Amino acid sequence: MAILSRDFYDRPTLEVAKSLLGKILIRELPEGETALRIVETEAYIGGDDKACHASKGMTARNRVMFGEPGHAYVYLIYGMYNCLNLVTEKNSFPAAVLIRAGEPINGEKIMMSRRSKAKKPCDIASGPGKLCAAMNITRELNGADVCIKGGLYVEDGLMVENVVVCPRIGVDYAGEDALRPWRFYDKNSPCVSKRAK
DNA sequence: GTCGTGATAGCCT
DNA sequence: GGCTATCACGACG
Known about the structure:
single chain; globular; about 15% helix; alpha+beta; 8 strands; 3-methyladenine DNA Glycosylase, Chain A
């Protein structure tokens, strides 16, 4: 399968978020290769989106979002969990897609060993913090290019047919922006973090 | 199965 | 000093 090119990310963020469903996230670890089929994403778009870190302007933490598309934006949340985002749209327009969940495709044992609490395959990466723990994605990867074969990249995959669109999770503080239907997931996947009502 | 709660540390004002 | 794009656990039934 081909690696997704930078052009894939240099598009409206909602399109990227939706078309990332079904794509394959690949992480190369010392123990071997791990891969997840992406089944859940969220879009965070620009300075006007109060749920987006960039809504308060550029800071040391979020500067990667303002840069070139096709790079990883990794940050720490709640003091304990990492979250993986893929930067979209042009330079100086801050936007990214949060990768929230995936189905194990390859290296399941490796990921399982990093997720001792997981009892079944779907527990491995059914949430952004879990996904990063399983693949050992840390802030060392902040700013990494995901359009070239390396420690972290994304390959093409089959498009998901039944996509559910609903509001984003955990952003109640964003007021009316919390209601925007900017979350996407594969209706047929058992591995999504949370289902809409 | 669903619900409520506390842990925890870097970032920003 | 207040906040946060979460997770896992225990109490229910």
